[in-house]
Write a structure and sequence with these properties.
CATH superfamily of the largest domain: Alanine racemase
Structural class: alpha/beta
Bound molecules: ligand LLP
Distance between the termini: 59 Å
Shape: globular
Strand content: 25-35%
Largest sheet: 9 strands, mixed
CATH class of the largest domain: Alpha Beta
Number of strands: 21
Radius of gyration: 23 Å
Number of domains: 2
CATH topology of the largest domain: TIM Barrel
Length: about 425
């Protein structure tokens, strides 16, 4: 079910027409549907009902405090990759004891911060990180709960930039080395072996590779148990894909079914770390056409959003549907939808058939995940406002940046 639908020829977010949001808050503007955000989390809850399970939302997908707060109130945990994300979770009312900390380069300060806050688990990605964590936990007289993030070496069949569980990736500990590293961890005084983790990639449309990874994780878990290393939880990562164009991803329940089937009868707590699946289709980027330009070879719709607002097309050649917010005009022209940034890679969509005029609003769909979170200030462009719609009300959850904020921390030489 979509929460962005046309009513009387105008695209709405739940009960609010998008032109109303543009008029009140300007463009470019990210608009999210509260109901859409919570519906996806609820799908996870239902699929995992009756199990000891924790859904840890991957904060990197969209770290707005209001979204974190909605998820915290709905009982979610969080998957973080930095001290900054941990601070956001706490500021949003999230419970640190439901936080897992992933990432290949945790600093000593980040480890101290996470230990002080009492996070659920560090997902350790290398032998070097394990040593550092043990040292730091010793200094602050704590025991760090750890899982090794194991690299199961399965091909998730997705974009190479977002595959993470292959032998050549920088992530995780090699499958063949995990056993030895667990044995070593057992001997360390300041770590407590809690679980095992894996994450094989993102935008996965087929659950088979994830089920294969789960199999490998279970094999390892059983070998560890045979040596007296009993794991309390299994973290199977995130990665569940969504529809951007014409993909047909399984439902949350459909994706999880083959994985949960492998886990039948197991006693360990189960964790998942979905990001995109929770927020991707719950948000759009609202933008206005500044100019229509008829070039020699192509026509351009130059909009006020750009690659600094939504980087996915430029970075991954990702497809996002682009819909006119009004459905008035009838003559369709093929446009390159581009932003004002001075790069040829600054596009939001190629060869889109649109019936539009200057000043019209466009909605870049499926922009809730890795949109605002990956935005930048390139070309000294203030970042967009963010709005959450709840029924017929719209709430600003992040104000548009001002130009002055952009260089407030800069100094000229004396
Ligand atoms: N857990 C770990 C350890 C991760 O590295 C990631 C994503 C997730 C969970 C959440 O994955 P998801 O459920 O969202 O697929 N910027 C790219 C995606 C990068 C994903 C990085 N890791 C994009 O825009 O497609």
């Amino acid at each position: 079910m979509s929460f962005f639908v046309y009513r009387d020829g105008t695209l709405c977010a739940e009960g609010v027409p998008l032109p109303q949001i543009a008029a009140a808050h300007g463009t470019p503007c990210y608009v999210y549907s509260r109901a859409a955000l919570l519906a996806r989390l609820e799908e996870f809850r239902q699929a995992l009902a009756g199990r000891d399970a924790l859904v840890c939302y991957a904060v990197k997908a969209n770290s707005n405090l209001a979204i974190l707060n909605l998820f915290a109130r709905a009982g979610a945990g969080f998957d973080i990759v930095s001290g900054g994300e941990l601070a956001r979770v706490v500021a949003a009312g999230g419970d640190p004891s439901r936080v897992v900390f992933s990432g290949v380069g945790k600093s000593a300060d980040e480890m101290r911060q996470a230990l002080a806050m009492g996070i659920f688990c560090f997902n350790v990605e290398s032998a070097a990180e394990l040593e550092r964590l043990n040292d730091i936990a010793g200094q602050v007289v704590k025991r760090a709960s750890i899982a090794l993030r194991v690299n199961p070496d399965v091909d998730p069949k997705t974009h190479p930039y977002i595959s993470t569980g292959l032998r050549g990736n920088k992530f995780g500990v090699a499958y063949g080395e995990a056993l030895a590293l667990y044995r070593h961890a057992r001997a360390l005084p300041h770590v407590d072996i809690a679980g095992i983790a894996c994450h094989i990639g993102s935008q996965l449309l087929d659950p088979a590779p994830a089920a294969e990874a789960a199999d490998k994780i279970l094999t390892l878990t059983d070998r560890l148990a045979a040596e007296g290393i009993a794991l309390r939880h299994l973290d199977l990562g995130g990665g569940i894909g969504i529809r951007y164009r014409d993909e047909t991803p399984p439902s949350v329940a459909g994706y999880l079914a083959p994985i949960l089937a492998k886990l039948a009868g197991r006693k360990e707590k189960i964790l998942f770390e979905p990001g995109r699946a929770l927020v991707g289709n719950a948000g759009i980027l609202l933008t206005r056409i500044e100019h229509l330009k008829h070039g020699e070879e192509k026509n351009f719709a130059i909009v006020d959003a750009a690659m600094n607002d939504l980087m996915r097309p430029a970075l991954y050649d990702a497809w996002h549907d682009i819909l006119p917010v009004g459905q008035g005009a009838s003559d369709t022209t093929e446009y390159e939808v581009v932003g004002p940034v001075c790069e040829s890679g600054d596009f939001l969509g190629h060869a889109r058939a649109l019936a539009v005029a200057e000043g019209d609003l466009l909605s870049i769909m499926s922009a809730g995940a890795y949109g605002m979170a990956m935005s930048s200030n390139y070309n000294t462009r203030p970042r967009a406002a963010e709005v959450i719609v709840d029924g017929d009300q719209a709430f600003v959850v992040r104000e548009r940046e001002t130009i002055e904020q952009l260089f407030a921390g800069e100094r000229v030489l004396p």
